Protein 1
Amino acid sequence: MQEKLRVAYYLHRFPRLTETFILREMLFLRDMGLDIQVFALMPPAPISTMHQQVQEMLPYVHYSPFFFSVKLHLAQLYFLLRSPRKYFRAFWRAIWQTWREPTTLVRMLVIFPKSVYFARQLKEMKVDHIHAHFVWINGIAAQIAADLTGITYSLHAHAWDIFFRNPECIRRQLELSTQIVTISQYNQKFLAALCHQRNPEDIHVVYCGLDPAEFTPAYQPDKEGTIRIISVGSLIEKKGHEYLIDACMLLVAKGYRLKCFIIGGGPLQPDLQIRINDRDLEDTVKLLGIRNQSQILDQYRQSDIFVLACVVAHYGDKDGIPVALMEAMAMQVPVITTPVTGIPELVQDGNNGLLVPERDSETLALAIERLIKDPQLRMQLGQQGRQTILAKFDIHHTASQMAGIFQEIHHSCV
């Protein structure tokens, strides 16, 4: 008799540097006694840096073989011979969810055999439930497995996966799932309005969580008194890095001595570097590229102010509640950000951080200047920020909520 609840986490790729919050969640669920197994549709990207905690999860990670693998084709035959109706039903339902997005449809056709292979593994491992972070291709893979095996599955909605995609494709995915989880009350209302078959109270809100023991404040002031600003986020439009660069230009023009470090990689790196050069900020603003968690923690300890000037991108994408904001607050670094989507559920203006309008470099510069001039306010906001994380965004609470959701689904289906 299986004692532990066995949950399969379906991920598009593992490990992934930008998804440390999922890694933490899985590790803490394992510590709580759940048997968490990872099923990754794609192998890890060839990057030079990775978080240390990845090693703890690797023994429980499963990858699909390549397309020409005998194992992959045997899995297709397994379900075609035993349950041909289920096999073709899963295939057509996957098409039904994706045909409005041609690129997603093509991806689905590629991962369908892998999804079937995983479904057979789930049966052999006697998995109780499937959980897919992001309403996207791995969520469709979870639906395929559920159609073939009858195992329940939940979808965990975040940001780009619901704000950037075709609304009808999102709605169809949500309606097929056993349970919906999301990361903010803002998202809860958004999804309830999109998916009329679900009441808002039926969509669970589970904030991403941090381990306070991992994020321990240890501020290291600059010996020369230079103010150090940090920003952590992919180099894409919705992170608003261009407005931080322009704010730094305004502050330098006023005579302030500062250094600004932007951590992250992405397609806008060349454009942002040109922006820095055009404003003669090469000695002030540095693009540090991708860093692992320990390197980012070192940067937090050396920083006076954290800025993430989030915006709603012109093509519709926007942030949920950026985990980097939570990390900075946990490290007692005072934060400045914008009231986009669910961010006000984390940052309350003047209480545990500062909020400024999006796409407004002048107001952003004034907010930074306010903190430069008032060390006492920086300390106060930093302390209140950490208290917010301890109260509402602790990974222990997040993992407990997720475990409760999994247990509830399992017991209702037994």
Note: The domain at 6-209+394-413 is CATH 3.40.50.2000 (Rossmann fold).
Protein 2
Amino acid sequence: MDEHRENAEPLEHADRPPELRAAIAEARSVSREQVLAAWQIHLDHVREQLEAGWRDTIDKIFDERFSEVETRLAEGFERAVTSRCNAIAEQNASYVRSTARRDVIDWLNQTGRRLRQSETRDVWIHSILDAAAEFCGTAAFFLVTSKGLKMEGARGARTSGAADVDIPLASAPAFAGAIESKETVVAMGTAGELSQTIASLLGDGSERRVYLFPVVVRQNAVAVLYAEPAADSIDVNGLELLVSLASSSIETTETVTVRTPAGDLVRDIGRAPAAEAPKPAAKPSWAELSKSEQELHLRAQRFARTQVAQLLLHRVNQVRTGRASHSLYRTLRGEIDAGREAFRQQFFENCPSMVDYYHLEIVRTLAQDTVDVLGPDYPGPVVR
């Protein structure tokens, strides 16, 4: 009915001629088709625009979402790689530590066995020098005799063998200090410190530091191991451990007869106590101290070790900072001064033979045998 009404002519035009009515109907049909075509074109255009916009939106969504996914994957991958690398690094570090520990233990066993099983004094001394060469550039071994010092051999020096000459301790104050204190001494390698004879035997060392490690048996320094760094590198701890092994091997082989032209090894080395050597200072040797004085010296040594250990335990960050900046004394002035004063009051003032063990421990442990790291304002040992 609606279509009939739409196609029906208005009644007021019913009187038009048939030809006119036909033309109008045809024009109306054509116009309708054109409008429908235009509408279709518009719809297609709109559809294209919508589809294009939808694709852009979809692309944008995918870009954003996959960018987030990519970031999370990259972060997760980095964490996984880092965790795996850390695990591998820890495994490698653990293996290296285990290997190094095993190597050190093997080295200790072999060195100790060589020293204990030495058949002659020369073999024993050569074993020490061979081991010392692993930790320094130049090593030499000196026996303490009733006439002073006698060089028994060297490694890495101009003179590699023994020197058949007696060197008075009075001419070698650095050696005398190591023998008297029974502690490691660091000195400049000048003829004034080592003696002209030793300087000529080992070469000019006036521009470098040398290290003297006393071999102590029953509170007597019976020998001294001399060491120079190799390209400014020296393992002081390793050399001190070697000297300890040497001392122990003398003690453990005391009942073994090791014949040499001069007698057996232990008696030949041990028969020259520090008390018989010339003394550069007025202080008595250990053998000349009374029992109470010896106990006081031992307490002073323990006090010094404990005080310095407390600094390392409770002020480790300051110690590292001071070492790095060569201002260790300035960084820990309060603590070091307090320890110096306590040592002076408890031990130094009341014992004329007392050695400044606190200073020696500061240099050996806190400064790692490098006096320069204490700084130019470090006051040095306590003096009377």
Note: The chain has a mean pLDDT of 75.
Protein 3
Amino acid sequence: MNVLIKYITGISIVLILVFLYIYFYQAGTLNSLYEVNTLQIKLQQIGAWGPMLIIILMSGAIVMSPIPSAPIAITAGLVYGHTWGTLYILIGAELGALIAFSISRLLGYEVMQKRFGDRIKHKFLNSKNHLMFIVFVTRLIPFISFDIISYAAGLTKIGYFQFALATLAGILPASFLLAHFGGEMASDDTQRMIITVLLLGTITLIPIIIGLIKKYGAK
């Protein structure tokens, strides 16, 4: 693909997203995304189109950082249950990650290569397998920005397939637990909600455990 066409495509996508964000912000639509009850009512009102809205909102939350993703994911579980809620969350998050990755790849990858080129010698940045592992691990850590990782990955040598697979595997546990939490909200089971919150916190420890196994297992 011609470099100019890449830049035009990438910039066009960014401009469309900026326009949509401004439009929804001025319309007051974004405020409802912070409130689970409001979003739940909206999903129930639009009926069969609800899952599509969840997917679009989750995608938008990844591509446009100010949009919160947790309330959307919880509402998906609240309205559609554990299984379907998890599926809609996964599709939306994966799609959003791929869009962010594509924007970064179109606009920044060649610039990075021309600017730094052979100076990027670190083994983790030159190995697609290492990059895939890094993406997977960072997806497991809730306090690391999902969208920043997606954009940053687009500047590296990791391929679309490796990125998509690492992202899918990494977001699966949190997606299920958020949907599960929403499902338990519907049943008002406080004990199960507490257990779900604790499990969400435990996910943060997984990368640490993996690191320790790699460190001491290699000895």
Note: The two ends are 46 Å apart (CA to CA).
